[in-house]
Amino acid sequence: QGLEIKATYDFFDPDRDLESGARSRWGGGVAVMPRAFLALEGLFRHTHAESGPALAGKDFDEGVFQVHFVY
Questions:
Q1: Of 24, 19, 25, whose CA–CA distance to 54 is shortest?
Q2: Which residues share a beta bridge with 57?
C-alpha cells in the first residue's frame, strides 16, 4: 500500500550533429496502491516536436489512466 508521485522527461534526436528535428516529452502523475492487489495510476504527458527532415509532427498532450490487478 502506498502513494507514488512520478515525474518524467524524454528527449529524442536522431542526429544531434544536424538540425534534423527533435522530440522532447515531459510528464507527471500519481500512482496509488489502496489494497495489496490493486494499483491505480494517472499520468499527464506533453510532447514537444521540432520538425525537420528526419522527424515530422506537432506538439500534443495526452492523459493515461491505468488499473493494475496484482496477483
A1: 19
A2: none
* Complete DSSP assignment for 31-64: EEEEETTEEEEEEEEEEEEE--SS-----EEEEE
pLDDT tens-digit profile, the chain (71 residues): 789 999 999 998 877 777 778 889 999 999 999 988 999 999 999 999 887 777 778 899 999 999 999 88
| H or E, element range at 20 | none
53: which 3 cell numbers? 527532415
Contact assessment for residue 51 and residue 60, using Cβ atoms and an 8 Å cutoff: no
DSSP lists the bridge partners of residue 27 as 8, 45
